[in-house]
Amino acid sequence: MQIYLPIAEVSVNIFLILGMGGGIGFLSGLFGVGGGFLMTPLLIFIGIPPAVAVGTGANQIVASSISAVLAHWKRGNVDFKMGFMLLIGGMLGSTLGVWLFTYLKTLGQIDLVIQLSYVLFLGVIGLLMLFESIMAMLRSRAGILKRKQHNFLQALPFKMKFRRSKLYVSALLPIGIGFVVGVLSAIMGVGGGFVMVPAMIYLLGMPTVIVVGTSLFQIIFVTANVTILQSLHNFSVDVVLAVLLLIGAVFGAQLGAKFGAKLKGEELRILLALMVVGVCIKIALDLTLTPSDLYGINILGGH
Amino acid sequence: MKMPLLTACKLALVLLSCSIYPALGDDLDVDLSKPDVRLDVSFKGSDILLFGAKDIKGDVIVVVRGPNKDTSVRFKQRIAGIWMNTDEVVYTNVPSFYALASTAPVFELLPTAVLKSERIGTENLGLEKKSSSERMTAETLQDFTKGLIRNMESKKLYTPGVGSIKIVGKQLFKTELWFPSNVNVGNYSVDTYLIKNGRIETKKTTHLQVHKFGIEAQIYNFAHEHALIYGFLAVIIAMVSGWLANAVIFMRKG
Q1: To pair with A248 at 20 to 30 A between CA atoms, which of A203, B131, B221, B246?
Q2: Mind listing the pLDDT tens digit for each residue in B126-145?
């Protein structure tokens, strides 16, 4: 069944969109990533204009994140204090990010910068996670458990107690992580979960289950902010498309959160790592393989 | 079975009006099966029947053009293993839609100069360069123009080649025009030429509105006129449905 989208201005199959929303929602509930780094390329792939894909993707992630956060909250897996610290950094970072985005746009090549940052971040993070979680799995099989200790990070001032995460660390750490993620999410048009989740696991030493819920909590606010800014400046949020995606996504997210509770931390991380590396390879190929047409067009607008 | 009857009536009317006023030089009449293309919820492209009558022997050419837009064409080059946009040409007055139909190959009907001046055929669009990233030879510019047309064809916004016009009886003709689902909104012009002995005998221009309709138009207008409220509403819808989905599943479990 086809439906014509009022803002995207294309006709799409309803069931394809529902299915895509469901799949991405499942992943976001499972890993605590918003799924933006998959959603945006997928929407563009099925013919949605890139600007609409970014704006609408953000809107949909608001819904799936809320749904997943509630599921995690009921299990006590959200550290709100940590979440607020991330949020402070995130708001500052995304403000700088939007400014940086505008600056890069005036230089031209913004598309290339976005693609290269995808390849760089997804590649580095994916590979690091993959190796680390394989090592952790091997270690736990050998029966050796080792807790990571961070030397200079422990020495930072403004220490704070995070009861849920069982941590006593400087507030500057989550604010800093939130800031970096905020910058990236403004430039790459994603929630930034795929950067935040590993950062909190490896830099803060937070338990994986708490990281997922807390990361989603922060993503709600970042993507809500992006949705409103995109509507205001680019008119690029398609509510019809978003509603279809989120109908699929909210249910997918519930399933994902339930399924994730059954998996071990290492297994979760290996799966996420494989997916991140997969998307990285896909984008890298797009950049290096000869395109079917060397000329590309962009209809700028009216008379 | 309403449409064919209506169409037949219209054809009859057209025919009648032609035979009544032959002396006025009104030797060509054209009409469309629908006055507009409505982009509503179920829109997945639209067929429009163009039909008409002529009262002299001769061939017919039909050209449909969408509203003009500035269009940028970028050329990709491999630099350090990575394909990146390098040169850019911005064209002004590029028709956002172009379709051509004819009773015979157009180059057999009219001399090249006339095809050029009337902008018949995608090779005769007369595209004007607004700006380019650097100075270009005519040859390079030609490659950019070809790239533009190729891209528009793959988006189905330009019809490659020439569509056919069917002659019914001696004086009636008809052709189907196809508007794909990614068609741009605006005022479209439909030029119909009656051609005899390599000369344009008559040219008739009709217009066709392509516009959003019903809920599609309401959402689109609201998003543009009240952008901030629209953004907040989008977030609220997302939040409520996320919460609802969770509540539904929780209730089922409880």
Answers
A1: B221
A2: 888 887 777 788 888 889 99
CB burial of residue B38 (10 Å; 0-12, 13-18, 19+): middle
Residue B39 sits in the same domain as residue B130: yes
Size of interface A-B (CB pairs under 8 A): 200
| CB contact (8 A) between residue A288 and residue B82 | yes
Instruction: Give me the number of domains chain B comprises.
Output: 2
3 state SS of A168? strand
The pLDDT, as a whole number, for residue B7 is 55
Chain A residues in contact with B42 (beta carbon < 8 A): 2-4
Whether B205 and B218 share a structural domain: no
Indicate which CATH number applies to the domain containing B124: 2.60.40.1930
A303 contacts B93? CB cut-off 8 A: yes
What pLDDT was estimated at residue A192?
Answer: 78
Same domain, B24 and B148: yes
Domain range for B244: 214-254
User: Which A residues, 54 through 113, put their C-beta within 8 Å of a C-beta on chain B?
Assistant: 59-60, 62-67, 70-71, 74, 108-109, 111-112
In SS3 terms, chain B reads as CHHHHHHHHHHHHHHHHHHHCHHHCCCEEEEECCCEEEECCCCCCEEEEEEEEECCCCEEEEEEECCEEEEEEEEEEEECCEEEEEEEEEEEEEECCEEEEECCCHHHHCCHHHHHHCCCCHHHCCCEEEEECCCCCHHHHHHHHHHHHHHHHHCCCECCCCEECEEECCCEEEEEEEECCCCCCEEEEEEEEEEECCEEEEEEEEEEEEEECCHHHHHHHHHHHCHHHHHHHHHHHHHHHHHHHHHHHHHHHC
A229 and chain B in contact, CB less than 8 A: yes
**Cα–Cα distances in angstroms (integers) from residue B107 to residues A257, B166, B216, in the given order:** 65, 18, 42
ipTM attached to this prediction: 0.79
Shared-domain flag, residues B205 and B222: no
Provide the residue type at A175 as one letter: I
